[in-house]
Design goal:
The complex is a heterodimer. Chain A is 39% helix and 26% strand. Chain A is α/β, with parallel strands linked by helices. Chain A is globular. Chain B is an all-alpha fold. Helices cover 71% and strands 1% of the residues of chain B. Chain B has a two-stranded antiparallel ribbon. In chain B, 50% of the residues are buried. Classes of the chains: A alpha/beta, B mainly alpha.
């Protein structure tokens, strides 16, 4: 579904990614792990078309999208949920959700999707008329994932969905991610510092360190690798 | 007493003009964080275009529609050609550019239409209604002014609150990145925002034109009043712009009537400074939770 081939990316003179390669098969969940500043967010921003790589190639669904605009990638089914969710606090919960589907022409389809999303996150229905700025961290994360689903994406790029959330909320969000894959064949690239919860839901993982992939493999293998756990994942 | 009534009615009529121009400033401020100093020039150009239609034998309503359409077009072109190219730089660059555009528009208008102010026809009689044997300072054309501005404001409110395009425009204004991530074509929303703002300004232009003579610099003072009204209303709030326009219109009308018309501009500046000192967020802005 997604192929990243030898991508190098710079912020001005600073190299944020170096020769990163990664593949996410259709219906797969791949976790990208690493410490703060390892380049995880830079990788997602590059894939989402928010920054341009200096070299390398990105393919989505068989087509080269290295230079595609963010808005067009969304329309092709690649949705990016940034760190903290990027919900628009001045809009209501319902407006945030509707916004996610507005580029789709068919109004009935949009309403149907809204019902589906609300059934995944019933909490959002209770909050529908409130400004998103009044939501708790967990509700915001649900809203941002729900909003991304409003565009009926084939693939989600999730940036640290667990950041700052209580363990029970993290567990709930990871469970939803697993369900979305099982029930709709959604493909997910999940960036996390929280290696334990990310590897619990992912099939495969890759570890980034200072902009390079230093390890990749099956999620269970990564989780079991004592040296890796110690050196990069902060797990004991 | 009758004097007070006259000043009040006159204040409402003028206030609606300020409200419309303030609204056009607020729309652009909300969308792109730029104060459009060229607004006075834009509405001057569209009013002159309307006047040319009338001169060529066109009906008032044709001229009216041409003014609005040309306002929409000028707004869109300004955003595309001028503001877009300055995107990413300090916001002050774009503000200075709008000042430059104002000077350019005034010079061009002088070249095309001359520097002698010209009169502009009203849609309806500007003679005041007769109430108990006396003509008040409010006539059919004032009624039209009030209704047209309120109608435009209501149409904008419906657009912003009730339509998908409006939701996309608001989202683009609040958080451009988040909007892009939802597939919103943010740059198109900015263009549309400028176009609608300039259209609102051009409406104010044809409404105020019969009361003033139209020349290249005619609308400079109105821009100052409108800016004051917008700041009074909180700059961010379309409703505040309307209320701010009305409050300013009434205040200036009383100042003009009771203290002398030469003090009007001074009074507007005094109000502007007072608001900025006492309540810089505007009198009518509701306290909102800002994102951190």
């Amino acid at each position: 579904m997604l192929q990243v081939d030898g991508v190098t990316m710079h912020y001005g003179p600073v190299r944020a990614l170096e020769d990163v390669s990664l593949a996410v098969p259709p219906g797969g969940i791949v976790a990208v792990l690493g410490a703060n500043g390892a380049g995880k967010t830079s990788l997602l921003r590059t894939i989402a078309g928010l920054v341009r790589p200096s070299s390398g190639r990105i393919k989505f669904d068989g087509e080269t999208v290295t230079l595609a605009a963010t808005e067009d990638l969304v329309r092709r089914g690649l949705a990016y949920v940034p760190e903290g969710g990027g919900v628009i606090g001045e809009l209501t919960v319902e407006e945030n959700l509707r916004l996610g589907a507005l580029w789709r022409r068919d109004r009935d389809e949009r309403l149907r999707t809204l019902d589906e999303v609300v059934s995944v996150f019933p909490r959002l229905a209770e909050r529908s008329g409130m400004h998103a700025s009044t939501l708790s961290g967990g509700e915001r994360q649900m809203l941002s994932i729900g909003r991304a689903l409003m565009g009926r994406p084939r693939m989600l790029l999730l940036d640290e969905p667990s950041l700052g959330l209580a363990p029970i909320v993290v567990e709930q969000i990871m469970r939803v991610i697993g369900e979305l894959r099982r029930e709709r064949g959604l493909t997910v690239l999940l960036v996390e510092q929280n290696a334990r919860s990310a590897l619990s839901v992912a099939d495969q993982g890759a570890v980034l360190n200072v902009g390079r992939v230093v390890a990749h493999g099956e999620a269970q293998q990564l989780a079991a690798d004592a040296q890796l756990r110690h050196a990069y994942l902060g797990m004991t | 007493m009758s004097r007070f009534v006259d000043l009040t009615l006159n204040g409402i009529s003028n206030g609606m003009i300020y409200a419309a121009v303030a609204l056009s400033l607020v729309l652009i401020w909300r969308a792109t964080r730029i104060i459009n100093f060229a607004q006075g020039g834009m509405m001057m150009i569209t009013t002159f275009i309307a006047l040319s239609v009338v001169d060529a034998g066109g009906s008032y309503w044709l001229a009216f529609c041409v003014a609005l359409a040309s306002g929409f077009a000028i707004g869109a072109v300004t955003e595309r050609a001028l503001v877009r190219s300055l995107e990413g730089g300090p916001p002050l660059n774009a503000v200075i550019a709008t000042l430059g555009l104002l000077i350019l528009l005034q010079a061009v208008a002088g070249m095309i239409w001359g520097n002698t102010p010209r009169s502009f026809p009203p849609a309806y009689s500007i003679r005041g209604y007769e109430i108990s044997g006396r003509h008040v300072l409010f006539g059919p054309f004032d009624t039209f002014t009030v209704l047209a501005v309120l109608g435009a404001a209501a149409a904008l409110a419906v657009l912003f609150r009730g339509t998908g395009i409006g939701l996309q425009m608001r989202a683009s204004a609040f958080d451009a990145l988040a909007a892009r991530l939802q597939g919103v074509r943010v740059t198109r929303m900015y263009t549309l925002g400028w176009a609608l703002a300039a259209l609102t300004g051009s409406l104010a232009g044809v409404l105020v034109a019969p009361a003033v003579f139209v020349g290249p610099n005619t609308f400079d003072a109105i821009l100052v009043f409108a800016f004051t009204a917008a700041v009074l209303g909180g700059l961010d709030s379309p409703v505040g712009a309307i209320i701010g326009g009305l409050v300013l219109g009434l205040s200036l009308s009383y100042v003009s009537g009771y203290a002398g018309s030469s003090l009007v501009t001074l009074a507007a500046l005094a109000i502007l400074i007072a608001v900025l000192m006492v309540r810089p967020e505007g009198l009518f802005s509701v306290a909102r939770a800002r994102r951190i």
